[in-house]
């Protein structure tokens, strides 16, 4: 059974959420470059929600990092149990070994639409 401390797992999740926030922020920046003069106003409001998304993800990342600091190491968690609750292989690997980020995703935080 592989275990990691609660703080270590929270830090790993905080890093991944921060990465998602940076992707959402890049998408938000792209929307400002669009010509929306003929667009449906309801769709424009949906685009504005991307701004809220990256801010919310940023806040969650900070919150998880602060929780990690507040609890100290915390109890050890069974990594297999955590991995069984997620679908993405990338996150499963991150849960077992936080150092795999650069190996698995060297372009983390960048948006490549093509």
SSE topology:
Elements: E1 3-5, H1 6-31, H2 41-71, E2 76-78, H3 79-83, H4 89-96, H5 100-104
Antiparallel strand pairs: 1-2
Helix pairs in contact: 1-2
Q: Which structural category do the helix and sheet elements fall into?
A: mainly alpha
Mind summarizing the main beta sheet? 2 strands, antiparallel
Sequence of strands across the biggest β-sheet = 1-2
The geometry reads as elongated
Oligomer: single chain
What number is the mean pLDDT?
A: 83
Radius of gyration computed on alpha carbons:
17 Å
Order of helices and strands: EHHEHHH
Helical proportion?
55-70%
Amino-to-carboxy terminus distance:
40 Å
Number of DSSP strand runs:
2
Task: Extract low-pLDDT stretches.
Answer: none
Tally of contiguous helical segments:
5
Beta-strand proportion: 5-15%
Question: What can you tell me about this protein's structure?
Answer:
The protein is built from five helices and two strands. Strands 1-2 form a two-stranded antiparallel ribbon. It starts with a strand and ends in a 10-residue tail after the last helix. Helix 1 runs antiparallel to helix 2. The chain has helices at about 5-30, 40-70, 80-85, 90-95, 100-105; strands spanning about 5, 75-80. By secondary structure, the chain is mainly alpha-helical.
Keywords:
single chain, 114 residues, mainly alpha, two-stranded antiparallel sheet, 5 helices, 2 strands, 66% helix, 5% strand, elongated
